[in-house]
Write a structure and sequence with these properties.
The structure holds 3 protein chains of 3 kinds. Chain A is an alpha/beta fold. Chain A contains 9 helices and 28 strands. Chain A has 3 domains: 188 residues, 3-Layer(bba) Sandwich (FAD/NAD(P)-binding domain), CATH 3.50.50.60; 130 residues, FAD/NAD(P)-binding domain (3-Layer(bba) Sandwich), CATH 3.50.50.60; 93 residues, Immunoglobulin-like (Sandwich). In chain A, the strands form 7 sheets. In chain A, strands 1, 2, 5, 6, 7, 8 and 20 form a 7-stranded mixed beta sheet that branches. A 5-stranded parallel beta sheet of chain A has the order 10-18-12-13-14. Chain B has 2 domains: 42 residues, no CATH class; 62 residues, CPE0013-like fold (Roll), CATH 3.10.530. Chain B has a 5-stranded mixed beta sheet. A 3-stranded antiparallel beta sheet of chain B has the order 1-2-3. Chain B is elongated and about 65 Å long. Chain C folds into 3 domains: 159 residues, FAD/NAD(P)-binding domain (3-Layer(bba) Sandwich); 144 residues, D-Amino Acid Oxidase, Chain A, domain 2, CATH 3.30.9.10; 98 residues. The relative contact order of chain C is 0.16. Chain C is globular and about 70 Å long. Chain C contains 14 helices and 22 strands. Classes of the chains: A alpha/beta, B alpha+beta, C alpha+beta. Chains A and C meet through strand 7, strand 8, helix 4, helix 5 and strand 11 of A and helix 8, strand 17, helix 10, helix 13 and strand 22 of C. Chain C: It holds the Pfam family Fer2_BFD. Chain C: This is FAD-dependent oxidoreductase.
Amino acid sequence: MLRSVDAEVVVIGGGPAGMAAALSAWEWGARRVFLLERNPHLGGILNQCIHPGFGLRLFGEELTGPEYAERYIEALEKTGVEVLTDTTVLEVGEDRRVVAVNREGVWIFHARTVVFAVGCRERTRGMIRLPGTRPAGIFTAGCAQYLVNIEGYLPGRRAVILGSGDIGLIMARRLTLEGVKVEAVVEIRPTLSGLLRNYVQCLLDFRIPLLLSHTVLEVLGKERVEGVVVGKVDEKGNPVGEKRLLPCDTLLLSVGLVPESELLKKSRIPLCPLSGGPFVDEDFACDVPGFFACGNVVGVFDLVDYVTESALRIGRRIGEAEGYTPPRFVLSPLEGVAALFPQRIRRGKDGFLYVRPKEGLKKARLSLIHNGREFHSVALPLCRPGEMIRLDLARVPWPEEKGEVQVVLRGEKHVDVL
Amino acid sequence: MSSVGKNTSTFSEVFCIVCPLGCRIGVEQGSDGLVLRGGCPRGQEYARQEVTSPCRVVTTTIRILGGEIPRLPVRTSAPFPRERIFELMEFLRTFEVTAPVRRGEVLVEDLLGTGIHLVATRTIRRLEKEEEGSAGA
Amino acid sequence: MKVYDVAIVGGGVVGCAIAWYLAHCSLDILLLEKQEDVCCGVSKANTGILHSRSYWTPGTLKGEVHLRSLSWFERAFRELGLSPLRCGALTLAFSREEARHLEVLKKRGAIAEAAILSPKEVLAIEPRVNPEIHAGYFDPETMVISPFALTIALAEGAALNGVEICCGKEVVAAEPSGRFLRIRCGDGTVYHARFLVNCAGASAVHLARNLGDSLPPLSFFRGQYFVLDRECQGFVRCVLYPVPTEKSKGILVAPTPEGNLLLGPNFEPTQGEDTATTRKGLLEVERGVQRLVPDVPLDRVITTFSGVRPTLPERDFLIAFSPSLPCVLHLAGIESPGLTACFGIAEYVGELLARRGLPLRERNDFRLRVPSRAFRECSLEERECLIREDPDWGKIVCRCEEVTLAEVKRALRANPPARTLDGLKRRVRVFAGRCQGSFCGMHLPRILENEGGIPVHGLRKSGPGSFYVLRRDEVAAYAEVR
């Protein structure tokens, strides 16, 4: 007999997004709320992010990942939200039937509302088609971070890190502190991908070379990595000029994150081709009524504070049971934008718009255009791909007439000289 | 270990990391003290510290016995002198605690005589059954 | 002193098939594999296609054993508990000249339901095929199987019936010792057997030389592959072949029983067992498959790999007794259709050994292999029952392929057991999904230590030296790093 459970809200994923969504659902009156987490503990990715940098906006303090997570874990304990850990969701039907499995058996939740807070996954070696042999010693940076911080293992003795995003930079420092020699951080773009402060504290502090406009061209080593070939590349990523062999026994890949959209695909939730996650409105409701999505499954947030604030909006929406109304505006990026969410604006009176710039710009201008007319613009002295722009939707003078809005970000090219 | 960029005996350039602008602040050894160029007051304060005695908050994990998980994440209670960080790591390598530990608990006071403490950043409960123990890693 | 009837050297698909075949008789069989598990050499990296009669090569030994093997299929799959993908194949011709070759295939196959189709008919079955084709030959009898699923099933079936499988044993010498052969391994272990069958794959000629025989040299040709995400299942229904050349069967598109799509292989000379992938080789595969299926979803690649074909100058199999040692049988040059022909090769080898005095008395207590169930393939009710019996079925270890802890534990206790991460991958599919181990790889070291008795410092991906992670105290002290 399969366990059949009626639920008002089922939240899938117990990281910061899921915890905030479950909390807010409870706060706004929902009483049969389930939070399903596949790991033994709540906290999601925060548990392995033992470095500070979380909570500055929401709490005014720089907390480490576990400290930030515990605040929400403790808040949840005070509610009647039922938390099931070590529980994996296998499928979610279009009728909001959630099938999950744990050591007790198979569970079928019949939910009025489903919230996807399943985060994202790392891009792999296969996805970047990195040629060479296939030895042991190649890890995605997040997997290595888990192994180091949660399990206490070390990935190797001598590492090269591909990708200068924050996770790669943080791991460069982490490994160095643990006695692993980090030979270089290799970045295919001509600019740093992560935050400047991480460049200072993770690379400069330890004199770890940053090779810009370079990539790893080949992996060498029979049973275990013995070295990687790195070389300079042009804007298209084609090798130009000299190649060099960097001896190492470990390669960490920090080459991008993609939303964990497998469950959504099976439930036929419309996905945005730019982000890979679902289309959402400013309350983080999906295009299909009864479904919400928050956190990194929507798109990669750079601050967990934004994840929390966006997930907290969901409860109110569920509580108010507004039902499904078509959005007033549909946003699309026209120029200069690598990602933006939400892509649908329902009311435009509250909530925030998050925009990630495609490249570094100074004296920039973010413009919103409707019917060929720029109806709002924001001046930005400086913007970088590693830092999101956050717009207060209440401050935007939305036009009367519904329709499509193009988002344009223009300015003078800016490159941090490091 | 130096911060960045041009660095002669009298001139250093510091990347300010206090706010996202990331200004570059020049620090020069003048006849009566340091002369700072660029940045805002907070940034200049940071730059001053960077060239005299750079400090960093250190976060790492230590071994915990008898807990639900084998490693306890920890932090220094204040930015730690950068040139002594590896010394700190060496000390922490052999240091271990026993569960239960509460988030915020001070595990070590006055690390290496700096007056800075070691603080737990996660609550780890004691594991119930003996057989499923984590012997630490 | 134990004397085995037959010592089989090489735990690839051929060695395991011979072991399994001979295990049907009352014999003491020993299988010696140089690497740490069966299926670690040539057998692990190929397309896994079971070529139908249309693709046999008349007038060759490989052709003969191919045909013999085909008649073994139904019995073997039943006894081994295997279900290959019965998807059929379409060979696509892009010119009138190529189309003439399709006639040859049809004639050769003499398969009633096979047919030469017009472009329109081909597109009706496979709408994604390049519309510029001239014709297509549809062969319903081609199948696809996972080469390691087959090899491991053969090994398990053999072990179930008394075959002793010893891994990590590299045979370095064998000399007559009285009426038997004294077989010596690199680590000093010695075995005695009446017969030795050399099916050491890429090392077969090298081993023969160590035994005092000079076989023709092996040339190695590498083939590179893309593996596409399971989401692409259904993109094509059958195996898609181009018209073959003298060199090889060409760059294919093949659906797999697990739901992935395999693209490849190309054909390029390589040194020994060099199975690196290269930018150039992968591009060649891309172009090759785009010719067959213009919009093949190359943005859904989850991994790439490559295998080698050990070939003899005549491009035929060599299965013959040693000229110097009458009880030593050599097999070399087993390239395509080696996988398909494995049963036929085993039968042929059995006959040869029988002629030299090996008594083949079929036993009446031969045990059939019961296939291991995969959680992924079970219904919800079946899953509930499994979890009730053993809660470890409710703990998902690999989220991409939905593999549970129970299945991992089972693989660790199988015979032959999984001892490495690759061994686990080939048995239960961890590390084989779209995340390529970035999720399960986090948890497996602890699981293997607790459940598999494999301490972290002993956990390897594959061969010696392929350690996965290190314990903290194994990394140099800070002083050296600083």
